[in-house]
Amino acid sequence: MLEDSGFVDVRVGEPVDTFAGAPGEAGARTYGVSGQAFLARLPEKG
Known about the structure:
By secondary structure, the chain is of the alpha+beta class. The protein has one helix and two strands; from the N terminus they run βαβ.
């Protein structure tokens, strides 16, 4: 999806447990939900 929007050099980080201690932690564990970081850039116009 990021590439379809014009971004290049897309990187996806490793899954991270971002729900520990949160009210929705049990639901996140049930469905295997995790957070992931995305890094991408738009190419220079030239």
